[in-house]
Amino acid sequence: MADNRTLDSLAWGLFIILIGIGWYIGAVYEIETGAYIALGVGLILLGLNLARSQMGIKVSKFSLFVGLVALALGVAGVLGYTLDLFLTVIILIGLFIIGEALGKLLKK
Question: Which residue range(s) make up the domain with 16?
């Protein structure tokens, strides 16, 4: 059975492949791939934490947070919108605080 280190290695490998493919496509076709890379990073990090959760490994709040930020920025970019990074982070911090409080309330 895979452990956390194995999952991290898998995620890093996927990330490096994503960056390479994104840069290659951007260079060859002369298109901006930043939004697609951000979307991919978000999916990789959320998938990593989903795998951790399913395997009974503690979820990393930091990588979950970064994954959500990347996913939000990537989805917005793919749809043709721009999100302010600072405001997106502030909103997600608020959602994390609410989520933690609700989690504690529901455990009681």
Answer: 4-107
